[in-house]
Design goal:
The complex is a heterodimer of chains A (315) and B (276). Chain A is 78% helix and 0% strand. With 315 residues, chain A is mostly helical. Chain B is globular. Classes of the chains: A mainly alpha (315), B mainly alpha (276).
Amino acid sequence: MSIRNKIALLVVFTLALSGLFLFYNLPNNWEFALERRSFKVASMLIISCCIAYSSVVFQTLTNNKILTPSIMGFEAVYMLFQTIIVFIYGDKTFQIIKSSDNFFLSVGLMLGFAFLLFVLIFKKGKSNMYFLLLIGLVLGTLFSTISSFLQLIIDPNEFLIIEGQMFASFNRINTDLFWYALGLLILSFIIGFRKIKHLDLIALGRENAINLGLNYNKSIKMYLFIIAVLVSVSTALVGPMTFLGILVTNLTYELFKTYKHSILIPACCLVSCIAILGGQFIVERLFNFNTTISIIINFIGGIYFMFLLLKAKKV
Amino acid sequence: MIMSISRIPRTVALILAGVGMSVSGLIMQQMTQNRFVSPTTAGTLDAAKMGILFSVLLIGQSDQYVRMLFSFAFTFIASIIFLKIADRIRYRNIIFIPLVGLMFGGILNSITTFFAYKNNIVQDVNAWMVGDFSGILEGNYEIVYLCIPAVFLTYFYANKFTVVGMGENFSKNLGLNYRAVLNIGLFCVALTVSVVVLTVGAIPFLGLVIPNVVSILYGDNLRKTLPITAILGAIFLLICDIIGRLIIFPFEVPIGMTVGIIGGVIFLILLIKKQR
């Protein structure tokens, strides 16, 4: 099948799933339901694109197919922040802190963290991606140690609030935040897509890219910043989705054996839309909300990741 | 009374956990020939957690030894898988292996969370994993003595672990039973880690920081550095425990937290220094 056909097929699938999601079992007063549902579908599409774009770019930057940007420690920062709020305000959390304030504070903290990390690493001139990741990971472990300590002494009823934040959910997005997220997403995509061909160069490795006349450090910094924005927006909006990135990018690489990012990125966006729409549909209809989508995706994504590691001759 | 019921058991448990965790970190580093590998960065702790969860889910009110068997089995298997993975990426960047290990731990964790969420025990599962010595009393900590044989075994095999770390072909060439030594090493690590996790909880970074500090100070002769690593691990843990008990007296901060923060900072400093 040609690439064009595959993309068309993915588009059809995405549309079909969106349609299914919108019109399945529509109740009598359909106007309200349809409005809610279309809103939810739109936000799922946005989050999928955020995750797909950031994961593909991140894997290109690190020259590796089994990493996702969330390992830099963003999610640990997010969880620590949520834990601290609940720890301080207890069951009054929702009265005192508006969800939009929470959103902006979380995004701000995650971006601040990313910025600190980048400054720390790139100040020395030599930019070693793996070093950056390891520092991020260690800081992440540090933060999650603190969060789990706080979670230990929190009242079990209040812990349920944290548990709600711990797992990604599309049911808690509110309308105002949706438009902010959309704006940020479009902005990042415009900036990123203008130089999409540079990614093809970066994929060749640092030396080759520099040899071909690319300002390597500058491009890497720009892309890392875009990734940081997208990951923090999607995490603050729906919660952590650690392994989705690995799942969808690798499925995309399997489907499209190409290195052109102008094809990979849109394709991966479509694949992750299908994954999220399908997953959410299963969660809502088959499991009757008994579990959350992020747990299912982490479960499947995690097993797939193990399979990748054990299958690959050389990772 | 207080001495024999609470204080002596606590001190013994502290010393043994410190010795056990730092020594098992050292073995793992020798076997993968990578400075950054340890129970924290190889998914071993997450495997132990998964083992405890499954023993609780499958058997219910199980006693300590059943739980230990479960978590031992899980850590053992997880270590084998991790070594398999590490073997394949040997010739890559030194930082990459711990990255993969941490990802591996993340997966095990997500599987654990999947089952914990279904049974509504997420908070309890997290609570098991916060290293804390305050619950150590006479009668519930004796299992930690199993560390001692593991540590001694490690000492006798110390040099062989280094050889194993140089690769399968190399060690066979030197006349070593590669498989057997590897399994003994994994056995010791799995036993120590599962026992410590069960009695105390996870103590992050301990197995990472102590061996690295010792290797900077005393070099890499394993026979010589192994006792020093063990003692330093115990001392470090004792100091952290005292700090944790004094800082918000009369309450106490769990040791997982104090060690996590102090150890994490030391590890970061080591990393940044190494990079220069």
